[in-house]
Amino acid sequence: MWRVFFTSAIVAVVVRTAMGWCKSGICGHFGGGGFIIWDVSDGQDDYYFKELLPMAVIGVIGGLLGALFNQLTLYMTSWRRNSLHKKGNRVKIYEACIISCITSAISFGLPLLRKCSPCPESIPDSGIECPRPPGMYGNYVNFYCKTDNEYNDLATIFFNTQDDAIRNLFSAKTMREFSAQSLLTFLAMFYTLAVVTFGTAVPAGQFVPGIMIGSTYGRLVGMFVVRFYKKLNIEEGTYALLGAASFLGGSMRMTVSLCVIMVEITNNLKLLPLIMLVLLISKAVGDAFNEGLYEVQARLKGIPLLESRPKYHMRQMIAKEACQSQKVISLPRVIRVADVASILRSNKHNGFPVIDHTRSGETLVIGLVLRSHLLVLLQSKVDFQHSPLPCDPSARPIRHSFSEFAKPVSSKGLCIEDIHLTSDDLEMYIDLAPFLNPSPYVVPEDMSLTKVYNLFRQLGLRHLFVVPRPSRVIGLITRKDLLIEENGESSAVELQQSTSRSVQ
Amino acid sequence: MWRVFFTSAIVAVVVRTAMGWCKSGICGHFGGGGFIIWDVSDGQDDYYFKELLPMAVIGVIGGLLGALFNQLTLYMTSWRRNSLHKKGNRVKIYEACIISCITSAISFGLPLLRKCSPCPESIPDSGIECPRPPGMYGNYVNFYCKTDNEYNDLATIFFNTQDDAIRNLFSAKTMREFSAQSLLTFLAMFYTLAVVTFGTAVPAGQFVPGIMIGSTYGRLVGMFVVRFYKKLNIEEGTYALLGAASFLGGSMRMTVSLCVIMVEITNNLKLLPLIMLVLLISKAVGDAFNEGLYEVQARLKGIPLLESRPKYHMRQMIAKEACQSQKVISLPRVIRVADVASILRSNKHNGFPVIDHTRSGETLVIGLVLRSHLLVLLQSKVDFQHSPLPCDPSARPIRHSFSEFAKPVSSKGLCIEDIHLTSDDLEMYIDLAPFLNPSPYVVPEDMSLTKVYNLFRQLGLRHLFVVPRPSRVIGLITRKDLLIEENGESSAVELQQSTSRSVQ
């Protein structure tokens, strides 16, 4: 965290300085803009109690549309995975091309069908021109209008970069710029396109489209509020901003982080409580229907994502009950290569306990070996030995580097079918002791499953041994023991602690 | 988090609405102010590369003064605990009274010794008047000056509420308001007073005094910077703000949270990167000397606070080595009251393992019982029984409520010396089975101490059993097992998971 924090501070200062050098225009567009993409600090300054109801309505709409979005993209993505993309990589390219053609046709064609509106007579002290001068970025786009004093409101959103479209939707002091009809048309088309595009083979984010969708219906609600409360100083742009927050909240279901992001990109701290309220309402409404966008997609990909809290019924369960689905296969310390190969073929377990015998004949669990590490050992073959006896660890040369055991980033890792073993290889032995995790976390068999769940979540575990209840306790560690180990016994602070401890 | 978030949003909206009602002045002072205490959004807008060096200097000063502050308060607090406050509660009251008298005398006396300065000729477009009108809060305090066109710069800081003093120090467009001499005098006096006051028997925060100290030397550095870079548009107030951040960073050693707080109370997002840099420098400098203020004080109070990461030398240690400082005392399931009393008297352990025997004669650890719970059982006496045999849990009435076992908030809890037991009581038995934690977390004896440390930190544990290596593995739990238990086997998502699992 400290490093990330430091890096981002340096980045901000360097970019800022570079922008200062480029201000004269010598670097083209790089001198313009800033860290705050959509500055709304000149917008609505205060809000009224009466406005809370329409804002809550925005939250509800955001929750509903967001939950619907998650559900539709779930269907689309699973359809893509299960049927469309199985037909080969070429299909992915065709799909992306077709969708981009449709998007272009809609973005160009729909504004053409819309009549131009006359420019407003006066735009108070904002520096906004209508229509915008040619070659500039701005509001009030003249798109094939007949006269020079007209603009096309649909083109102002559609036929623009998404950044500028959002800036136009958020803009203050541009009352009645958009007609309800245009906003509804845009909302329907863009929502559909966003659902269809999500999951195609193009790198695309979900943030800016989400803000687009949200700010459209937000501005729509804002138009009605402005018309209803004529006497109050209300801006449509504020509602567009709240709409954006509500859709992101309804779809992604983040609260605090989204709030910080919304404030950072709009630079209006005074709207923070409203953004918070709208986010919470939309998240609550969305949660009533389904999970967040990222959770849904992660589950679809088979990523074992654990929720932050265990389910209530887990309180009634014990650890042993959770592991009855699969039989544990234990490996001896020194094992025949043929046995390893057959065990790896016969099941899909990712980890195996390794058992050894003490001299007195007792069995002892000495660690956990991972499937992926066994596969690496089988492939490299350098650790095969003829003797079925454990080798001496001090005499043993180190034949592997750490990187060999690391899972490659781009492939799915080794597979037992890929490894060719000769019949001589199969007759040899392998000593697993140097390759195992000697102390995986363990839980007693009758521990509550909620406790096990917390252990998994908090420590980010992948495997856990369920063992019999221990027969004796060797020691008891407390926080104070760890503090003694941490500080060394002689430090002054530690001495003071022990005095205060004895007082307590 | 969700609840806190919701509550604060509601609070913000309600306060805002109430402030709107009170704006006419009918509620006195309650209509004024706002959420942003020290608004500096009209201050310096841009910063220059050359400014980074003086800002780094502020960070270093903040780190040094912050670390010194932590060290001095540590000495003061331990002196208070060990000698002054042991003389009784009356001493605490005298101490607080004396310190408040000294503070008052200094705040009133020192500005009197200082000569007044003439008001600046023109203060550009800021609405600041010099001297401030009587009865108003503001800058340029006229404190026993001879003419009406003068102000006393030391009184502007000293003889003011701390909130207003900070506002004056942060203020932009008030160049050369303070003399270096006044700022240095104030810094020395206020720093000393802050050190002396910290830990007295008065409820006092550390935040506003920290901002006061920091903004003083920050403004001092700013004065030199303004004089050095005459052509640049630099404000002294910006440096005061950075100074405040640096002292808080050097003393409290928080980074991200302090950054957010500083931005929230000053409403200037553009200075965020600078605040981040200054905070990091001051934290790094401070960390070279000692720990943060809260950590130092928590250790002094004997609170077993674990650092976020284990020390490096713990990698070489195993769990068993950490618990050799104390011998474990195990209790049988049914134990004589006399034995419980003597065990509790003879040591200070807070938790005891409870051992039972199976029918086949093996021993088995059945749980952990806390010292505090044993004391409650001894005091209430209702669970004493004549027979040394375990009682039948189904026949047993519930004689305790949960609240009996909760530690009282205000006292230090029960003590074995407070409990009176008759000789009849001592001859009786008590069955511990219903009162123990049946599955405390356990670790094998040779687990790496860093792993044990992480377990403690992440789960917030207080006790941990160190047990022998298990002899067999009953089962192995993976994340997927937990997901199956979470979702139920029949859900659609689960089915898709199992298919994708088999593909992988």
Automatic annotation (TrEMBL), chains A, B:
> What are the UniProt keywords, alphabetically?
CBS domain, Chloride, Chloride channel, Ion channel, Ion transport, Membrane, Repeat, Signal, Transmembrane, Transmembrane helix, Transport, Voltage-gated channel
Q: Which domain of life is it from?
A: Eukaryota
* GO terms assigned for molecular function: voltage-gated chloride channel activity
Q: Which GO terms describe its cellular component?
A: chloride channel complex
Q: Which PROSITE patterns match?
A: CBS
Q: Which residues form the signal peptide?
A: 1-20
Q: Which Gene3D superfamilies match?
A: CBS-domain, Clc chloride channel
What is this protein identified as? Answer: Chloride channel protein
